[in-house]
């Protein structure tokens, strides 16, 4: 029976059982499509990274003897749309069965189900063999529970997969070393130089420009740094083990104006495109840890494992549990628009300027920049979560809806009413001052609320709490913040609200 097997751009798993043996009657298809480049405006580096990784994957499977076809974005034969590509291949190659791997995005899942229901030949969906969990495991784990706490899920995953366990006890006698993962970075240990691949990408960028794909952000044509093959992805893991793991946990929450990446692994694109799996990353890193225990503390490795075995799988489970309604949630009824400086980086706020310019230059910001600088700011500004989502989904190299949406709309914007976060991640300038050196070099004064040079975060913070106090009044975790709000005199609160509204209305001049 002649089979057509579809491989989506984020399904580049060469270890999948599909590729264990070759078959003359099986044809693989990969396609760069306008459908995928245009559903949101992506960062130019993201488009380049996906196209290059797909092309490398195609070359690899062909070299292993798998019959395959590839549509480049500029091929005149390319129909640029999933349904047309599938039907074109079925007709041209007289295909008798269509097979695909389960997509991770709801949008594509629905589309493929619909396409299959219209086909006159049989079809079948396969697991991607990438994650630790399937789509429903988290829902089953939390069945009947009101609170979907990540920590509970994480402990279950540690036990189930025997990761960092000594029998039934967690290694180091503690499940979680979060409390020791909150150091400010003051230059006490050197940050190793960035792992660079320095790839030449002018040809593919020209192809993207000629196709008139609209993108955001910047790219260096002779120094492209993201891994675009399995070998390079494994090199990044190796680099992480040898250079960054030692201090990963310590400085997980730190920010520094001279250090864009600190000790973060920058593995998210390699994993989200499935060039490498979370299982092998965890195995390699734990094995390195065990060989170097005299040098690396348990809190570093636990911090890293928690991100991948805990947060990454948890976020995926929440996505499949809550979609499609999740994508429309806006419980705080925020309606403001994003300021223009999200696309230009031009703002006098040093923390925002660094985080946004870095996002535009590198298609990357680390977790705390995404959560406690940019996300904190958009929530305090009461920006519509649709606008925030579209920006995050476009700008980051690793942004695919299943992971972007719950992180942005849920964890960072609290638009889901607390499904993920038990309280909103908001702060005044003092948190940013505590965790970074941004404020020391800022035009604004982090201690001030009023006056031309007052830090905008300060009044926006109290204004946000005041505007949303009715919504949060039953939330115990908000009790302390709301008590402090109550202690502010009516005169002071009035001044705060005037200032905050002036900031909201004139954001692009700040
Ligand atoms: P490291 O700090 O080295 O962490 C290791 C790995 O842990 C990451 O590669 C990632 O796979 C995983 N991880 C860590 N935190 C999370 C998390 N909260 N959710 C899922 N996986 C996690 N991650 C994405 O992959 N795509 C996104 O679109 C995305 N959007 C985000 C939006 C917001 C508002 C926030 C707060 C976080 C978002 N994250 C997203 C999670 C996290 O910020 C990134 O995974 C991380 O910054 C990637 O860099 P890294 O590989 O250097 O991570
Ligand atoms: Fe950001 Fe305010 Fe600090 Fe400036 S003073 S860096 S705006 S928190």
How would you sum up this structure in a few lines?
This protein is mainly alpha-helical.
Considering the chains and any ligands shown, give keywords for the structure:
510 residues, mainly alpha, Rossmann fold, Serine Threonine Protein Phosphatase 5, Tetratricopeptide repeat, DNA Cyclobutane Dipyrimidine Photolyase, subunit A, domain 3, 5-stranded parallel β-sheet, 47% helix, binds flavin-adenine dinucleotide, binds iron/sulfur cluster
How would you describe this protein?
The protein has 510 residues and is mainly alpha-helical. The protein has helices spanning 34-38, 44-63, 82-92, 106-118, 137-141, 150-160, 202-210, 230-248, 268-272, 278-291, 298-322, 341-344, 350-362, 367-380, 385-395, 401-412, 429-435, 456-472, 479-486, 490-505, and strands at 3-6, 26-31, 67-71, 97-101, 123-126, 165-166, 169-170. α4 (106-118) links the parallel β4 and β5. The chain is globular, with a radius of gyration of 24 Å. The protein starts with a strand and ends in a 5-residue tail after the last helix. The structure holds flavin-adenine dinucleotide (FAD) and iron/sulfur cluster (SF4). The site of iron/sulfur cluster (SF4) has 14 residues, from α13, α17 and α18. Flavin-adenine dinucleotide (FAD) binds next to α9, α11, α14 and α16.
